[in-house]
Design a protein that fits this description.
Number of domains: 1
Helix content: 55-70%
Shape: globular
Strand content: under 5%
Order of helices and strands: HHH
Structural class: mainly alpha
Oligomer: single chain
Largest sheet: none
């Protein structure tokens, strides 16, 4: 059976979505490039290891890294949250 053909943009979006989901949930400590790849492969029903092969190896690593940096920056710049209150300041 031939491997499933999925558009590059769909794969990129699935990887970024996997990183965001892992980052914002209890799995944050498990966030690695390989884990994000596995989540995206499973979601898209790609062959296991597909994102570790050929051009996708470096490309997926960059997507995971860029998405993680973006999410980290959003977290930094959204602090303090609306629910955060400073007390004892005149």
């Amino acid at each position: 059976m031939a491997p499933k053909k999925v558009a590059d943009e769909t794969i990129e979006n699935a990887l970024a979505e996997a990183v965001r989901h892992i980052f914002h949930n209890d799995e944050k400590d498990a966030l690695t490039v390989n884990y994000a790849r596995q989540v995206a492969e499973k979601k898209l029903k790609l062959q296991e290891g597909f994102l570790k092969e050929g051009n996708w190896k470096a490309r997926s690593k960059r997507i995971v890294h860029d998405t993680l940096v973006c999410n980290s920056m959003e977290s930094i710049f959204s602090w303090p949250s609306k629910s955060f209150r400073l007390t004892g300041i005149a």
